[in-house]
Amino acid sequence: MTRPSPELRQFARQLRARQTDCEWLIWQKLRARQLLDLKFRRQHPCPPYVIDFYCVELQLAIELDGSQHFTAEQQVYDRRRSLYLAELGVVVLRFDNRQVLQEMEGVLQEIWLKARQLLKSPSP
């Protein structure tokens, strides 16, 4: 990954300070190595983007999508973004806010399963 600009780092800081309720809820489950002893970062700059949650060790990104992500234009943007991250070797899991609010255990299980799979995968 390329080094983030000072502007992108500042933007990531602002996002951390203004996290959504759903981001706060999932952060309470990912922080402090609670999931498989993995370290996750919040609002991690990955130029030209900022990833909601990122595990460097596994190159695993977790993105939370609010209602604005349901427009056709935003879905195209999200697909382009996910493809770009995949080209960098980053695995992206996307969840919408409804899933986080209503199906937290299922969201955490999906993250856990993907993390276990990536932990068992041989490094390239």
Give a quick rundown of the structure.
The chain is α+β, with helices and mostly antiparallel strands.
CATH class: Alpha Beta
Form type: globular
CATH superfamily: VSR Endonuclease
Number of helices: 5
Which second-level CATH architecture applies?
A: 3-Layer(aba) Sandwich
The number of domains: 1
Average pLDDT rating: 92
Q: Strand count, sense and closure of the main sheet?
A: 4 strands, mixed
Order of helices and strands: HHEEEHEHH
Number of strands: 4
Could you give the distance between the termini? 16 Å
Give the helix/strand class.
alpha+beta
Strand content: 15-25%
Residue windows where pLDDT falls under 50 for at least 5 positions: none
| Proportion of residues in helical segments | 40-55%
CATH fold title? Endonuclease, Chain A
Strand order of the largest sheet: 1-2-3-4
Please tell me how large the radius of gyration is: 14 Å
Secondary-structure blueprint:
Layout: H1 6-17, H2 21-30, E1 41-46, E2 49-55, E3 60-65, H3 72-87, E4 91-96, H4 97-102, H5 104-120
Parallel strand pairs: 3-4
Antiparallel strand pairs: 1-2, 2-3
Provide a descriptive summary of the structure in words.
With 124 residues, this protein is α+β, with helices and mostly antiparallel strands. It has one domain (6-120): 3-Layer(aba) Sandwich (Endonuclease, Chain A). It is 49% helix and 20% strand. It is globular, with a radius of gyration of 14 Å.
